[in-house]
Amino acid sequence: MCHLTFMSDDDRYRRFNLRIPKDVFAALQVVADAHSHSMNAEIIQRLEQSLQIGGLMPTVKSDELTPEESLMMRIWREMTHDQKLAMMAFLRSFLSMSSS
Q1: Superkingdom, according to UniProt (predicted)?
Q2: 32 phi and psi, to 5 degrees?
Q3: Can you tell me the distance from the alpha carbon of 10 to that of 26, in angstroms, rounded to the nearest whole number?
Q4: Whole-model pTM?
Q5: 3-state SS assignment for residue 64
Q6: Are 41 and 32 in contact (CB under 8 A)?
Q7: How far apart are alpha carbons 83 and 63 in whole angstroms?
Q8: Mind listing the pLDDT tens digit for each residue in 37-85?
Q9: How many whole angstroms separate alpha carbon 40 and alpha carbon 97?
Q10: Are 45 and 37 a contacting pair, CB within 8 Å?
Q11: Contact indicator for 29, 39 with CB cutoff of 8 Å
């Protein structure tokens, strides 16, 4: 006989309170509605994507950056999330071609 055990949502999720600026909340609500997602689902999706993009970032002092690195940082910070994902995919592909 096979016995299946399912985890409840309480086993898979951790609850906590989050304070968020009103304008960020409003922007998330618009995007969540447009994607037919709950606010929770939208926030989780964005957090997961940001962890895939950045992971743990080392701390770098601005005076340690070259002018080219500073320019790249300014451009990166102006990019949308989707643009960052596309750029990361491009760079991974480019680097894998270069190492072949």
Answers
A1: Bacteria
A2: -60, -45
A3: 27
A4: 0.46
A5: helix
A6: yes
A7: 27
A8: 899 999 998 888 877 766 666 677 778 889 999 899 899 999 998 898 8
A9: 38
A10: yes
A11: yes
